[in-house]
Amino acid sequence: MKKNHLLVLFSLQIFLFQITFAQSRIALVQKDGKYGFIDEKGKYITQPIYDEAFSFSENFAPVKVGEKWGYIDKTGKEVIPPQYDYANWFWEGLAAVKKGEKYGYINPKNQTVIPFEYDYTFAFSEGLSSVEIDGKSGYINKSGQLVIDAQYRQAFDFYKGIGPVQDEKGRIFFIDKKGEKVDKPFLEHLILKKQNYIYFYQDDKIGIKNKRGKVLTTARYDALSRMYKNRVFFKIGDEKYGIATKHGTVIRKGRYDDVGSFSEKLAPVKINDEWGYVHYRRGMAIAPRFEDARPFYTGLAAVKMNGKWGYINKSGELIIPCQFDDNEDSMFVKIK
Fold first, then answer.
1. pTM
2. How many domains does the chain have?
3. Are 274 and 250 part of one and the same domain?
4. Are residues 271 and 146 in the same domain?
C-alpha cells in the first residue's frame, strides 16, 4: 500500500469506497499519534494503541505494534499477533504480508498459502495478483503459480478480465488473463468502471464522450470531478468550481473554492475557507462551518472543527464529537 504506483492508490480507494458488508459500522481513527477503531456511536472498539493501522476488509484490519504487523477482528481481538514486517488488507480470502525482505500470502487462520518469495505483492483481483520478481512484474493465481510472466515495469489490478500494464518504455497498455494484449484505451478503462462516459483531452482542455465515442460536451474544462447521477463539478480557468451535467448544461455557476466527491447524494464543498455539503440536485444541504470535510459513507461523514475530527449525519448534526487527530482514512465501513 505504500508503494508509489500510478494506479495502486486509485484501485485501493475504489475497493474501500465500494465495501458493501452488512450490519456494524467501524471507523479507523487517530489520537495522540496512535490508531484505534470506533463504532458509529463513537465508542472505542479498540483504544488508540497502534502505531499504524488500516481499515477493515473482509472482517480483519491490519495493525502495527512497534515494528511488526498483525490483524484484529471486529471486536478488537488480536486474531493474528504482530509478527510481520508489513501487512496488507485481506482480499478474496488472502492477504499479502512481508517477512524479512520477501512477501507471501496468508489466509485468515494465519497459514502461509503462498510462500515468501516475492519482492513486492498486491491484493488479489479476479483471482490474480500482481507480484514483483527481480524488479519485473507479472501475475500469480491463488495457488502461487506464475500465470503471466514477470516482464513488465508495473502491473495493476484486473477488472472485468482486463489488466493495465506498463512496459519498460513507460507505455501503458492492456492484457487479458492469458497475457495477450487487448486493444483498449487506457483512460477509457480507468474511467469506465461502472460509468457510461469517458473524458477526453483536446488542446489541454477536457471534454466528455459516451462510451461509444459520441461527444457529449466539447473540450472546454480545465478540471472535472467524477460523474455522479449526471452531475459533475467543473472548473474553467481561474474561475471557481461549478456543477454541470454531462451534456454541459450548467446547473450551478462557479461558486466553490474547492470540492470533494459526491457520495450518497452529497459532496463536500468549500466556500470562503469553510466547508459544507451540497446536494447533487437541491443545492446547499449543510451550511459551510467546518475547517475540512470528507465524503459521506454509510450515512456518516468526517468533519474537522477546532483542529480535530468528528462525524456528522446527513442533517449536519455532530454525532461523534470532534476529538480525533487528522487521519487519511476516517470513513466508516460496514462489516459483518
1. 0.73
2. 2
3. yes
4. no
Residues recorded for the chain: 336
Tens-binned pLDDT, residue by residue, of the chain (336 aa)? 444 333 333 333 333 333 333 347 888 998 898 999 998 888 999 999 999 999 999 999 999 999 999 999 999 999 999 999 999 999 999 999 999 999 999 999 999 999 999 999 989 999 999 999 999 999 999 999 999 999 999 998 888 788 888 988 888 788 999 999 887 554 444 444 456 788 888 888 999 988 778 899 999 999 999 889 999 999 999 999 999 999 999 999 999 999 999 999 999 999 999 999 999 999 999 999 999 999 998 899 999 999 999 999 999 999 999 999 865 556 665 556
The residues facing 148 across adjacent strands are 139
Whole-number Å distance between alpha carbons of 179 and 163: 9
Rounded Cα distance, 140 and 164, in Å: 15
State which residues form the domain around 292.
196-301
Structure-block grid coordinates of residue 44 = 472505542
Same domain, 162 and 211: no
Q: Alpha-carbon distance 70 to 103, whole Å? A: 14
